[in-house]
Structures are given as structure tokens and as C-alpha cells.
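Q: For a teaching handout, I want to show students what a protein-ligand complex looks like in C-alpha cell form. Below are the inputs, and the small molecule is zinc ion. Please produce the holo structure.
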Amino acid sequence: MRAVVWHGTEDVRVDNVPDPAIEKPTDAIVRITSSAICGSDLHLYKVLSMYMDEGDILGHEPMGIVEEVGSEVTQISPGDRVVLPFNISCGHCYMCERDLQSQCETTQVTEYDKGAALFGYTKLYGQVAGGQAEYLRVPQAQYGPIKVPDGPADERFLYLSDVIPTAWQAVKYADTPKGGTLAVYGLGPIGQFAVRVAKHFGVERVIAVDLVPERMELARRHGAEIVEWSDDGRSAAAIKELTDGRGADAVIDAVGTEAHGAPVQSAMQTIASRSPSAIAAKLMEKVGSDRTSALHTAISTVRRGGTLSISGVYGGAATPMPMMELFDKQVQVRMGQANVKAWIDEIMPLLTDDSDPLDTESFATHRISIEEAPDAYKMFQQKEDGAIKVVIKP
Ligand SMILES: NC(=O)c1ccc[n+]([C@@H]2O[C@H](COP(=O)([O-])OP(=O)(O)OC[C@H]3O[C@@H](n4cnc5c(N)ncnc54)[C@H](O)[C@@H]3O)[C@@H](O)[C@H]2O)c1
Ligand SMILES: [Zn+2]
Ligand SMILES: [Zn+2]
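A: Here is the structure, written as C-alpha cells, with zinc ion included.
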């Protein structure tokens, strides 16, 4: 089959690789019909390359048609249309029973002391072959795959794999009080859907921060007030001004470690990503530091006693944090990978509603063949050509 394969830092290619096959009775094989590229894939493209091996298949936002199931898989059958959550979880362990599927104890990657395995996401998360490919082996298929109805286009349901549950969890964790204000940093797919979900939940004021004009415009169309990101403190001042000088009641960081405006850490990430992987991994484990311009601004613009909800991914072991500010302001902080399966029952009615209230079907900016994926990674990293969400049609 054809698959999007990692070859090195900023080097992604489409290769012929062996078709996957059932290996365990809890596996399924899915023929992929749509598979999105995620902001998280950009971390693998560069920052986390020390945890990748040449030949790793990328992708954790896939959906398709079930081809084959193992003997213990009864919740889905060949021919079913399914979306695959990015985290691989069992549904019956201590963590899954508590709706913490991203910490699943059956698939946890104990070698690296990490949570649940993820599709297409480094040795830290199990090095499981990803879904930017024609076929995907799905472990724990007795629980993971989400059955969706026939009819609407793939893009109506595709973002159940990651984007919508992540945004949903971000908004839930932010817990904006009634009549309050939510600030959202970063208007990639996660931030865009956080704005929409917050509006759906009735959050009165949503202030959204980014620096890419078309992303700011899209959020504005969905009801957000826009503040343009700037390095010099002006965006923080603007948010204070909009909130009686106090700051927002709740803040979501949907940016993560590749934030603009952190030149020193940015150079360090580049050096680490180009070092031999054993040295780079040690660097990351001991002194690796994130680009925190968005996170620190988020902290400075949440009001005293407010909530900070972090869905952007951070990976540094030695990232400096303003502990005095966090402590003195009594900030509540919640974060982590999305527990995708925990939110599906709440989200699904919005996707099966013919009026498509979250406007999912029109969200993708680019639909491409799998052969075009290497160029799409470059375009997406450079934020060129209005790219917000790229969907591969293998
Ligand atoms: N927690 C989870 O389960 C989970 C799931 C999916 C994605 N993520 C993470 O969420 C983050 C966002 O994902 P995405 O797909 O929307 O990514 P993306 O790269 O498309 O979006 C990030 C946005 O942040 C903006 N930005 C950069 N620096 C900024 C700054 N200083 N202030 C404000 N905005 C800034 C960029 O212009 C961009 O629009 C990534 O870190 C991703 O890894 C987490
Ligand atoms: Zn993703
Ligand atoms: Zn589990």
C-alpha cells in the first residue's frame, strides 16, 4: 500500500509499504477514506524527530471502512463506517473506566513512562503505524472505533478522531463561569473548534488570539472578538482592556511548543532536531525547553482565581514557568491529551444534525491525494495558501 512515511527532520515521503494484517484477536483492519494532517504532526516533522525512526508511518486522524476484524471484535463488522480516535484505549482498565482513555493502562507506553499509545506518534507513544495510509491496523478495536452513519461527507465526522473532542475537552476544562469571558490562544483547528464549542455552550464572550489573518477572520465569523498576537505585550494589554483590567475568567492555550515569538528556544529546538537522535533525546529529557510565548501570555491574561486549560502540546523537561504568578494569582490549571471516547456521546448529536451546527463539512481548506502529502506538510508548516486543515484522500 501507499503510506506517508517519516524519513528525517522535515523529510516526509510517500512510500510503498507492506499492507497491515490482523495480529491480535482485538485488531481490525480499516481501509482509510480520509486522513487529516494535524498541528501535532508538525512537532514530529521537526521538534520531536529524535523520537522517530526512518520508516515510521504518520497520521492519527483517520476514518474509513472496516475491512476485517479479529475474533474478539464484535462492536464493528466489515463494511461499517468508522472514525478512529487518536489515542488507543481498551475501554476496561482502571483509567478507561474513569473516562481517562488517554491514560489507558493497557496501552500505556511504560518504557517511556507515558500514557496511552497513539497512532503514528513517536516511540514515546508506542510507535504504532499511523493512518496517513491506504490501510490501518487498529489495535483495541473491540472498543476504540467510533461507528458513524452513512450519508454525509467524511469531513462531517472526521474531526471526531481528535480535533473536536480536544476542543470540547479544552472548553470543558476551561469551565468559563456564566456570563464570563474565555480567551483562546491559537486559531488552528483546535482553537477554531474551541471557539465554536464555547459559543455552543453559551459562553458569552470569546476573545481569540492568533497572527494569521485568515484564521483570525474565520474565528471572527464564528462569534469571537479578535486580538492580534504581538511579541511586545500589546496583545496581553488588549485582553486586559477588554476585561476591565482583570483578565479573562478562563483561558485556553491551543498553541503548544511551536509558538511564535520565542527565538532562543526556537533555535534550541532546531539544534536538538538536527542532532543524532540519541544525543537529542538526552537533550530533550534533561534540558529540553518549550517555546512558551503563548503559554506565558495566557498565564498573564487569566484573571486571579481563573482557569487555564492547556491543549497545546508541550514536551520540554526543563521549561521555566512563572510559578510565583501562577501561585499568587491562584490559577487553576488543567491539561492533557484529549480523552476522545469520553466526549463522543455528547458531540455526536451535533454531527448527525443536518444543519451541521459546528460547520464541520466546510472546515477543510485542502483535500489532496496521498501523493501530495509531502508538499502539504511543507505548506502546512509554513501556514501558506490559507492552509488550516489538510485532508488526505488515500
Ligand atoms: N491535547 C490534545 O489532545 C491535542 C490534540 C490535538 C492537538 N493538540 C495540540 O494543540 C495545538 C494546536 O493544534 P492545531 O492543530 O490547532 O495546530 P496549528 O499549528 O494549526 O495551530 C496553532 C496556531 O497557533 C498560532 N500561534 C502561534 N504562536 C502564537 C502565539 N504566540 N499566540 C497566539 N497564537 C499563536 C499559529 O499561528 C496557529 O494558527 C498543537 O500544539 C497540537 O499539538 C493537542
Ligand atoms: Zn491531531
Ligand atoms: Zn484502558
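A: Two things your students might notice: The domain at 164-263+276-335 is CATH 3.40.50.720 (Rossmann fold). The chain has a mean pLDDT of 94.
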